[in-house]
Automatic annotation (TrEMBL), chains A, B:
GO annotation (BP), single: isoprenoid biosynthetic process
Superkingdom to which the source organism belongs: Archaea
Segments forming domain Thiolase N-terminal: 4-223
Annotated protein name in UniProt: Thiolase
Species annotation: Methanosphaerula palustris (strain ATCC BAA-1556 / DSM 19958 / E1-9c)
Domain Thiolase C-terminal, first and last residues per copy: 242-387
Gene3D superfamilies with a match to the protein in the record: 3.40.47.10
SUPFAM superfamilies according to UniProt: Thiolase-like
PANTHER family referenced in this protein's UniProt entry, alphabetically: ACETYL-COA C-ACETYLTRANSFERASE, ACETYL-COA C-ACYLTRANSFERASE
Length: 388, 388
């Protein structure tokens, strides 16, 4: 397999973007990435688009073709493929694009993600998201994602020493970071009191434990590493791409407080990159709920089970900590346009490794990791990127 | 890139399968393919699942994880990815699986496709299918797929010498073949009068010009060619995989009677395989409507534009003709469970090349081709397979 590098990135602002359509969101992000990579559209050999549920949010399927068309690539007949894996759709679109370049089948490939969630009302949106869980055994009996993650949080807090304040600190930290990220949906800091006094959603999770409903798109451009310097002075090498599955229903898991798919994907990624945990300078993890960040840090092997709350309280995962987690602001503060999230994570790592992350820059960052989760952990994609 | 071979295939019967759920349909097809390849589940490195719209048909997304789970692979944490490209979803799932094996990233990979369309009523189903067209410029103004293909047929018949009887002969031929295929939804022969006297759907297309609403699943197993003989005495080599896009809306095309994406994908496939049209022994094309088969034969380069009707009338594309087209019965007689169709096409070619096609066997078939279309031609996948 050939080595693969990221040569360009783009990301729209995330938020309630009522004035921009699904297709135009993607075109905006793709255009930024193309400009960043200093290429023209005809150079592109293939597109991969991560999207969870345009079928339910905007009544549209056939997303690959739609995006190729509105990106001006119909006359080139550029292959374009939609990849869906619920909230992990972006991560898997990135992975497919990496494999396509690594194989030698394609050279210049766009990996993007997009979701337009605010064209439907909230109950419809919540039901669309519930399609990421097992409809027959979870959705039909009323389980929603806040409810499922609340079960994880309850189980976790019964077994491990995690305080309400430590859990809240995840959101406080991510809002702090988001306030330094121009694309974030929420660019304001909050306090532990903000979280603890916010409305109860599903006990113990409160409003500020939850990522919001968001519109947005992100895109990155890949090339063979050997050609990367044709396009950029700062290529970022893909050191590992890993993916793992687990049972779709939470109740079928071996342990509902440990995401075994994160453990498996993380192990596979470290093995592929021939790296150890201590080599990672920063991580973007899938904090759809605060408890998810706690589990992710542990399941990726950065500390023992039960220790991530203390680590968060002590500031280890803060912007100036030893292992900054979610420097972008994460799903909590950036927002979570489902299909785009996995690509935005890569965008953030690339920005950091290039030294272009502005007020949230981690000095000297050389190796970063992303962890993108589908559902309650039935799909996980882990990527490791490094300065080339 | 490594050479890739098909080492096992499976296909459920196609039809209105009210007694079988979406997930169990896939498990049935996958189980057949696993048995055919003589492997166990733990051998499988990855799955790719083609599915158009489980989100709209059964309220379920996150299809890759669901299928891995119900295939018993959750404990192996086997990577599983859903690929969507409307009616071309199966074709692109096959292509991604081929790329994954060719790259060296994976060895044993399942490419499957599934659709469960009869859990909703017909208007809902028609609207779900309309999501393959441009919702904003086609769906919202009332265009349905029979309507769009009727426009293609009208334009074609105004410009080229195609008679009503020749068009009907496509369906007559495909029903003849389907009557010899145990998995086909319609296993009975029809006459030209059956087609011409059937209900008008969208002028000039009548009921028997249209493929039906169908439940079904198909799966094939891929391996590096160099390992194929570990599993089977009759590996089938993937000689080419090609894909092309076009505008999603029909009215934006250069020529609505020519599928430029078929032309592009066909040319790419022949170039990759280093073969000529005369080398192909049989073809499975995407006859969602009779006119689509006429266009496909021409756009793949087997005859000049305007000649496919005559070819059909003369029996060239019949089971005993010079270029048998849709020996399986095609979408018309097999039925069209959208996500499964592209994989069923590969299944048919493999069965034929192995000499296992029973009453519809083409003697001595060595090289076969598939053409799978999304929407009105915005996505096309073309594959060429040959005896290894």
């Amino acid at each position: 397999m050939r080595d693969v590098a990221v040569i360009g990135v783009g990301c729209t602002t995330f938020g309630e973007k009522w004035g921009t359509s699904f297709r135009n969101l993607f075109v905006e992000a793709g255009g930024m990435a193309i400009e960043d990579a200093n290429i023209s559209g005809e150079t592109i050999d293939a597109l991969y688009v991560g999207n969870m549920s345009a079928g339910r949010f905007i009544d549209q399927e056939h997303i690959g073709a739609l995006i190729a068309d509105y990106s001006g690539l119909a006359s080139e007949h550029t292959p374009s493929t939609r990849v869906e894996s619920a909230c992990c759709s972006g991560g898997l679109a990135f992975r497919q694009a990496v494999i396509a370049v690594a194989s030698g089948m394609e050279d210049i490939v766009v990996a993007g993600g997009v979701e337009k969630m605010t064209d439907v009302d909230t109950p419809t949106s919540v039901d669309a998201l519930a399609a990421a869980a097992d409809r027959e055994w979870e959705g039909f009996v009323g389980a929603t994602f806040p409810g499922l993650y609340a079960m994880i949080a309850t189980d976790y807090m019964n077994r491990y020493p995690l305080t309400r304040e430590q859990l809240a600190q995840v959101a406080v930290k991510n809002h702090y970071n988001g306030a330094r990220n121009p694309i974030a949906q929420f660019q304001h800091e909050i306090s532990i009191d903000t979280v603890i006094n916010s409305s109860l959603v599903a006990d113990p999770l409160r409003l500020f434990d939850c990522s919001p409903i968001t519109d947005g798109a992100a895109a990155v451009i890949l090339a063979p590493l050997e050609r990367a310097h044709e396009f950029t002075d700062t290529p970022i090498k893909v050191l590992a791409t890993a993916q793992a599955s687990d049972t779709i229903a939470l109740h079928d898991r071996r342990d509902i407080s440990t995401m075994d798919a994160t453990v498996a994907a993380g192990d596979r990624a470290f093995k592929m990159a021939k790296l150890e945990r201590k080599d990672i300078d920063l991580v973007e993890v899938h904090d759809c709920f605060t408890i998810a960040e706690i589990c992710a840090i542990e399941d990726l092997g950065f500390c023992k089970k039960g220790e991530a709350g203390k680590l968060t309280e002590e500031g280890v995962t803060a912007l100036n900590g030893k292992l900054p987690v979610n420097t972008s602001g994460g799903l909590k503060a950036c927002g979570h346009p489902v299909g785009a999230t996995g690509i935005k994570q890569v965008w953030e790592i690339v920005k950091q490794l290039r030294g272009e992350a502005g007020k949230r820059q981690i000095d000297g960052a050389e190796i970063g990791m992303t962890q993108n989760v589908g559902g309650t952990g039935a799909s996980v994609a882990v990527h490791i990127l490094g300065r080339a």
